[in-house]
Design brief:
This protein is mostly helical. The chain is 91% helix and 0% strand.
Length: 272
C-alpha cells in the first residue's frame, strides 16, 4: 500500500494536477483502499493506474468543453429568440400591407353581392323553371316564365356588372399587394426548410445529451466506488458525446444565423 501511495504522489507531482483533479484522485484512492477490494496482479494495478491517467488527461478538456457547450446553448437560445420575434414582426408587417384598402374593397364587394343576390337568384330560378316547363311541353307556363324573366333581364345584367366590377377591383388590389410583398416573402421562403433541419438535429442532440447524462452518472458512481477503470470508461463516453453535442450545436447555430440573414433580407424588402 505504501508503494502505491508514493507512486500516486509522484505521478501527481509530475503532471501538476489541478485542484478538482486532486479531489477526484483522493476520492478514488481512498475508496480503493477503504471500501473496495483491489484487483489482483500487476496487470490489474497497471489498468488502474492507466485509468487514473485517462481521467487526469481528459478532465481538463472535459471541463473546457463543458463550458463551451453552455456558451453554445446560450448563444443558440438567444439567437433563436431574436429570430422568432423578428419573423413574427415581419409576418405581421406583410399582413398589414394595404390591409385597409383590401378590407374596404372586400366589404364593398360583399355588400354589393348580398344586395343583388335576391334579384340574381330570382332571375336564375325563372330561367331554370322556364327550361323545365319547355321540357314538359308546357308552352303556356314556359312563356309566362320567360316574360317574367325578361322583365328582370336589364336589372339582372346591371346587377351582375356591378358585382363583377367590385370583385375585379378586389382581385386587382390583391394582385398588386401580392406583387409588393413578394420579394420579402421570397426572402423568407427558405426558413421552413432550415427550421426542419434544426428540428431533426435537435432530436439527435437530445439523444446525445441523454447518453452523456447516463455516462456522467456512471462516472460519478465509479469515482464513489473507487473503480478507476469504470470511471475512466464512462468519462471517455461522456466526452465523446460532448464532442457530438458540440458539432450539432454548431450546425444548429449556423442554421439560426442563416435564418437571421434571411430575416434581414426580408426586412430590407418590405414595402415602404
Amino acid at each position: 500500500m505504501s508503494n502505491l501511495v508514493h507512486r500516486s504522489a509522484d505521478r501527481k507531482n509530475k503532471h501538476g494536477r489541478k485542484s478538482n483533479w486532486k479531489v477526484i484522485f483522493v476520492m478514488i484512492l481512498l475508496s480503493f483502499f477503504i471500501g473496495i477490494p483491489p484487483q489482483s496482479g500487476a496487470a490489474a494495478a497497471a489498468d488502474w493506474d492507466a485509468a487514473l491517467d485517462t481521467i487526469h488527461n481528459l478532465y481538463g478538456s472535459y471541463s473546457t468543453l463543458q463550458n463551451t457547450l453552455k456558451e453554445d446553448t446560450l448563444k443558440i437560445q438567444t439567437l433563436r429568440k431574436q429570430n422568432n420575434a423578428e419573423l413574427k414582426a415581419i409576418q405581421a408587417q406583410l399582413q398589414a400591407v394595404d390591409q385597409t384598402l383590401l378590407t374596404r374593397l372586400k366589404t364593398a364587394a360583399d355588400t354589393i353581392r348580398k344586395k343583388h343576390a335576391p334579384l340574381l337568384e330570382q332571375y336564375t330560378a325563372l330561367g331554370q323553371q322556364a327550361t323545365a316547363a319547355r321540357k314538359a311541353k308546357d308552352i303556356k307556363r314556359a312563356t309566362v316564365l320567360d316574360l317574367k324573366r325578361n322583365k328582370l333581364k336589364t336589372a339582372a345584367a346591371a346587377a351582375r356588372a356591378e358585382v363583377k366590377k367590385a370583385a375585379e377591383a378586389l382581385a386587382a388590389a390583391r394582385k398588386l399587394t401580392a406583387g409588393k410583398i413578394l420579394p420579402a416573402k421570397n426572402a423568407l421562403a427558405g426558413i421552413p426548410a432550415l427550421k426542419k433541419q434544426i428540428k431533426e438535429s435537435g432530436k439527435e442532440l437530445s439523444t446525445a445529451q441523454k447518453i452523456r447524462s447516463e455516462a456522467d452518472k456512471g462516472y460519478k458512481a465509479g469515482v464513489k466506488q473507487g473503480d478507476a477503470v469504470s470511471a475512466a470508461a464512462q468519462l471517455k463516453l461522456s466526452f465523446s458525446q460532448m464532442g457530438l453535442i458540440h458539432n450539432l450545436q454548431q450546425k444548429i447555430y449556423d442554421w439560426e444565423k442563416q435564418i437571421a440573414g434571411s430575416l434581414g433580407t426580408a426586412k430590407s424588402k418590405l414595402p415602404k
